[in-house]
From TrEMBL:
Family: Belongs to the cytochrome P450 family.
Name under which the protein is recorded: Cytochrome P450
InterPro entries, alphabetized: Cyt_P450_sf (IPR036396), Cytochrome_P450_monoxygenase (IPR050121)
Keyword Phosphoprotein: no
Record-annotated membrane-spanning stretches: 6-25
GO molecular function terms noted in the UniProt entry: heme binding; iron ion binding; monooxygenase activity; oxidoreductase activity, acting on paired donors, with incorporation or reduction of molecular oxygen
Cofactor(s) the record lists: heme
Entries under Gene3D superfamilies matching the protein: Cytochrome P450
Organism of origin: Ramalina farinacea
Keywords noted in UniProt: Iron, Membrane, Metal-binding, Monooxygenase, Oxidoreductase, Transmembrane, Transmembrane helix
Superkingdom field: Eukaryota
Length: 375
């Protein structure tokens, strides 16, 4: 007998319900994390974390604090602590080579460890001793030179595709990419950048002095342009940082002149803040990162809670980064000699330790976005 559309729908619905029930039972009773305390709703589904992170705009970290107070604290230590409070991922111990079995056998399900979703634990006191000689933190995060450590992909997903050095999850590939960038962030390299920083700081001081007077070069620099107006120093310092990073990454003259723009390019500073707030949505919906520029602006602004100018500035940033990378590659192809001080992307393109895959336009553009937004 042929199945009708209604019977197919009912069969699919029943199968989904049965699957959900079996999955919930497994996560609550048979998962390696089942004996750790925590919210049962959080243990059953990621939707609990999704609600507080995406709908609640990043409130899940505070919810974790409440769960520690309810389920896990054995000392009056406040939450959050000034030091880091790492998440743990023992259900994936076969794929991610952490000593989960050791942790699971030495922790009896009470104390500063709670379960915060189907796959992760959270430690409220990473400095508490796991053994007489080691703390939780030392056990779970030893130096990479002593143990191969792979980053947790769901956590990196919040920061974009795994093409930049920061979002690379593979231990070996991350080491190769990091080694290519590390020389630019050594003390000696940063000291060589001092003249560029000095020029930018001098220009910032001139702009602030002009704001005090009301005008700079005949152009209003603050709202209203009158004397005594308030200048947003957060935007001003971000403009300075962006100009320095652009010069360091792409060469002198490669900056976008943020310090010269009206209100220190406040729309770019707001875009940086909004992108940071969007990380929670990207972490749960990794595919959203790749299509955010293709869906209607109204839908993005409503769902992610960002302003329309932010989306315009984000598109501008992507175009700027793409253009800068293309300029560097074109100059290299034409045999143009590098400046006295090498730039980040010139060095990446000429680095013999990087594969051709690491020099593609897409990866370099992603790396450039990471360098600029990370600054």
């Amino acid at each position: 007998m042929a199945l009708t559309p209604i019977s197919l729908f009912l069969f699919s619905l029943l199968s989904s319900i049965i699957y959900g029930i079996v999955l919930a039972i497994h996560r609550l009773r048979f998962s390696p994390l089942a004996r750790f305390p925590g919210s049962k709703i959080a243990a059953v589904s990621m939707w609990y974390e999704f609600y507080f992170d995406v709908i609640g705009r990043g409130r899940y970290m505070w919810k974790i604090g409440e769960m520690h107070e309810r389920y896990g604290l054995v000392s009056p230590s406040p939450f959050p602590k000034p030091h880091s409070t790492p998440k743990l991922f023992p259900s994936n111990h076969n794929e991610y080579p952490f000593p989960w079995r050791r942790v699971l056998t030495q922790v009896n399900g009470t104390g500063p460890i709670i379960r915060i979703n189907p796959y992760e634990l959270h430690i409220n006191d990473p400095e508490q001793l796991l053994t007489p000689h080691e703390s939780y933190y030392e056990t779970l995060y030893p130096p990479t030179s002593t143990r191969r450590t792979t980053k947790y992909p769901p956590q990196m997903r919040a920061f974009g595709p795994p093409l930049s050095t920061f979002t690379t999850t593979s231990h070996e590939l991350h080491r190769v990419r990091r080694n290519a960038l590390s020389p630019f962030f050594s003390r000696a390299s940063v000291m060589e950048l001092a003249p560029t920083v000095g020029v930018a700081v001098t220009r910032l001081v001139e702009r602030l002095d002009g704001a005090r007077r009301g005008r700079v070069a005949g152009k209003e620099v603050v709202r209203g342009g009158g004397k005594g107006e308030v200048v947003n120093l957060g935007d001003a310092f971000m403009a300075l940082t962006n100009d320095v990073i652009c010069a360091y990454a792409f060469g002198e003259g490669g900056g976008e002149g943020f310090l010269e723009r009206r209100e220190f390019a406040a729309e770019w500073a707001q875009m940086m803040r909004d992108v940071s707030s969007m990380r929670h949505a990207f972490g749960h919906l990794g595919w959203l990162y790749s299509i955010v520029g293709r869906i209607p602006v109204a839908a993005v602004t409503k769902f992610l809670g960002v302003k329309k100018p932010t989306m315009g500035a984000l598109g501008d940033l992507q175009r700027v980064v793409r253009g800068k990378v293309e300029e560097v590659k074109a100059g290299l192809a034409s045999g143009e000699k590098p400046a006295a001080r090498k730039t980040i992307f010139y060095d990446l393109l000429t680095n013999s330790h990087l594969s051709e895959m690491d020099k593609t336009d897409e990866r370099l553009q992603t790396e450039a976005m990471s360098v600029m937004t990370g600054g």
